[in-house]
Write a structure and sequence with these properties.
Mean pLDDT: 96
Radius of gyration: 19 Å
CATH superfamily: Metal-dependent hydrolases
Shape: globular
Largest sheet: 5 strands, parallel
Distance between the termini: 25 Å
Low-confidence stretches: none
Structural class: alpha/beta
Bound molecules: 5-methoxybenzene-1,3-dicarboxylic acid, manganese (II) ion
CATH class: Alpha Beta
Order of helices and strands: HEHHHHEHEHEHEHHHEHHHEHEHH
Strand content: 5-15%
CATH architecture: Alpha-Beta Barrel
Length: 344
């Protein structure tokens, strides 16, 4: 294992869950933040967009794709940020607005990548509200703009990607060989009520409940038998889904015997090994990292910061000081990101 100071100089670090926003999406988020509503995304949108000064540090950093961000990367030894439009992205807008804003955000993302050669890669947004147009935008984003994958912020109008209406989206991602990063958002209506107290709705707990449920739906529904080469990414140390692998395997078979679910071609743990990668965003625990590497393999665990919501320096220290081999550290810090997201 190399010495820490030396490693800080030489390790290539690609951070894979890094948020931005464009002014047009920020303005549309602000409208939602200021309207009444029961969505669990609203408290966080209020904190970001309609807050007293103090939380506005998030908005400044989300809007910035130049000075603040590059300075933070340079100060901390971050080589590349894989950027994605911040949650809930375009998924709370009507279909036409969402489709237009996804296109605009993807254009701006490609421009930012071109302005800073080698420093950024990007996950394209799409509007699940209009699956056919989403699939068209997905093709444009990869083939014309050269973006590196996709982000979706979990449910759309309380529906999940296993629903047949979204199959064109899954089909497009599989055909393009581009990974879909399933990022959290506030829980869908049916999951929401017990998460309304104590701040449980957002990153502390609700995000993980929402997003892990989404991933387990994709496994349990059988859509991964229909799209066997689809690649999916979960942040926040896999939203803990792989911790449940043994029980998922045991109970899914029982479910099939009871007629509660389909008979799958593989066990849930085998879909996790074949169709998923995970990132370390916002969960800087060496114990959880060790478990994840043992459960999924070091080639399925990618480093992330979750800028600007989490500070960069501790995320870098977490990576550099992890008690893993240099080979594993190279995979987690950059090689997996290069492979999964086609980053040169
Ligand atoms: C996350 C965290 C995403 C926060 C966010 O998007 C906000 C995350 C609005 O954990 O991915 C937050 O406020 O901590
Ligand atoms: Mn995030």
């Amino acid at each position: 294992m190399s010495d820490h100071a030396d490693q800080h100089e030489t390790l290539r670090r690609i951070a894979t869950e890094e948020a931005f926003v464009i002014p047009e999406v920020a303005a549309a988020h602000k409208v939602i933040a200021e309207a009444p509503g029961t969505s669990l995304d609203i408290p966080l949108l209020r904190a970001i967009y309609a807050s007293p000064p103090g939380r506005s540090v998030f908005l400044d950093r989300l809007l910035d794709l130049d000075e603040l961000r590059i300075a933070d990367m340079d100060a901390n030894g971050v080589d590349v940020e894989l950027l994605s439009l911040t949650a809930p992205g375009v998924q709370m807008f009507d279909a036409d607005t969402a489709t237009g804003l996804a296109t605009l955000a993807n254009d701006r993302l490609a421009e930012a990548i071109a302005r800073h050669p080698g420093r950024y890669a990007g996950l394209a947004s799409f509007a699940p509200q209009s699956p056919r147009r989403a699939a068209e935008e997905m093709r444009r984003a990869i083939e014309d703009l050269g973006l590196h994958g996709f982000v979706v912020n979990s449910h759309t109008n309380d529906e999940y990607l296993d629903h047949p209406k979204y199959w064109p989206v899954l089909e497009a991602a599989e055909a393009l060989g581009a990974c879909i990063y399933i990022h959290p958002r506030g829980a869908s209506a049916g999951l929401a009520d017990p998460l309304r107290d104590y701040g449980l709705w957002a990153a502390m707990w609700g995000y993980g409940i929402e997003t892990s449920t989404h991933a387990v739906r994709l496994i349990a529904s059988g859509v991964l038998d229909r799209f066997p080469r689809l690649q999916l990414c979960l942040g926040h140390m896999g939203e803990a889904v792989h911790f449940w692998a043994w029980r998922l395997d045991f109970m899914q078979r029982r479910n099939a015997d009871l007629g509660w679910g389909p008979r799958l071609e593989l066990r849930p743990s085998e879909y996790l090994q074949r169709n998923f990668v995970i990132t370390t965003s916002g969960l800087e625990s060496h114990l959880a990292l060790d478990f994840s590497i043992k459960a999924l393999g070091a080639e399925r665990v990618l480093w992330a910061i979750d800028y600007p919501y989490q500070p960069t320096a501790p995320a870098v220290a977490f990576l550099d000081s992890a008690p893993i081999s240099d080979e594993e550290r190279a995979l987690v810090s950059h090689r997996n990101a290069e492979r999964v997201f086609h980053i040169a």
